[in-house]
Design a protein that fits this description.
It contains eight helices and 14 strands. By secondary structure, the protein is an alpha/beta fold. The protein has three domains: 70 residues, membrane protein fhac (Ubiquitin-like (UB roll)), CATH 3.10.20; 59 residues; 103 residues, no CATH class. It has an eleven-stranded mixed beta sheet with strand order 8-6-5-4-7-9-10-11-12-13-14. It has a three-stranded mixed beta sheet with strand order 1-3-2, covered by helices on one side.
């Protein structure tokens, strides 16, 4: 007895065979077109809030004086161009690709510094938002916090990680300050004392803020905010020489050579009377 023919299976296999053949034909056509397509234009986008690098510099890094307009896309090594771009210390990320119309697209993200360090051997360099050292530029100065004093962190003029505890502390402080609108406007400079204590210089007020280290930053800055809102308006912004936050749950103030301590109970009362908001940008 003859088996019944499964026409549905035959139809299914036929459709898939035709589809696969069509796909292979289309891929061959696209590949041929891609190999014959000439470069007509290069479009460059640079993102970031800094101005370390411009489109002309990007173009020069990409092609190193060799024009690509009119060349076949197949002869242009886009991967190599990406590697050239990311080797630049001011470029964090680069993506290079082309379309079938002959346009090369370049997307670049710049490094974003948050701190500039002047170390003990007269070197200066930036620390970016990811905690990497990067060089300063002769063409552009980033508007960021500046740290100086007894800083041993050195720089070998290439992208590198932080090595010393002091530099890591400075990075944590700069990152915290940058993320808070008020402190970003108020804190102007960071100084490292000989004993390793970190000191902040405010824009408003004649006092220095002794932070100590970068531990418990949220608590320390909340205490300072409470002090700013409750004490300084009554005593005056030029009353105190130093405001010391390095000790847990207390503020030690130096006023005309007299050291006064604000204990933890007083701080708690001040903090409870306020509604803190660590608003970030």
């Amino acid at each position: 007895m003859l088996k019944r023919i499964n026409w549905y299976k035959i139809l299914f296999i036929s459709i898939w065979t035709i589809s696969l053949a069509s796909l292979l034909l289309l891929m061959g056509f696209v590949h041929k077109k891609d190999r014959e397509t000439l470069c007509k234009e290069v479009k460059i986008w640079i993102t970031g809030h800094q101005f370390f690098i411009e489109q002309q510099e990007v173009h020069a890094i990409m092609f190193q004086g060799n024009p690509v307009i009119g060349k076949k896309l197949a002869t242009i090594n886009l991967h190599r161009i990406e590697k050239r771009l990311t080797s630049n210390p001011y470029i964090q990320y680069a993506q290079v690709y082309a379309d079938l119309d002959g346009v090369i697209y370049v997307n670049i993200k710049q490094r974003e510094p948050i701190l500039r360090i002047f170390n003990g051997i007269n070197q200066d360099f930036y620390i970016d938002q990811n905690g990497y050292k990067m060089p300063v530029s002769i063409n552009y100065t980033a508007p960021v916090l500046v740290a100086n004093g007894h800083i041993e962190e050195t720089f070998n003029y290439k992208i590198d990680t932080l090595k010393t505890p002091i530099a890591k502390n400075l990075y944590q402080i700069a990152k915290f300050v940058q993320q808070n609108n008020f402190w970003n406007q108020q804190i102007e400079q960071i100084f490292v004392r000989e004993n390793g204590d970190i000191e902040l210089t405010p824009r408003v007020g004649e006092h220095q803020i002794i932070l100590g280290t970068a531990d418990s930053l949220a608590i320390k800055f909340n205490q300072l905010m409470a002090f700013y809102k409750q004490i300084l308006p009554k005593k005056g912004w030029s009353t105190y020489k130093n405001i010391n936050l390095k000790y847990a749950r207390q503020i030690v103030c130096e006023h005309k050579g007299i050291i006064k301590e604000v204990d933890s109970n007083s701080i708690a009362k001040i903090e409870n009377s306020l509604q803190f908001s660590n608003t970030t940008r």
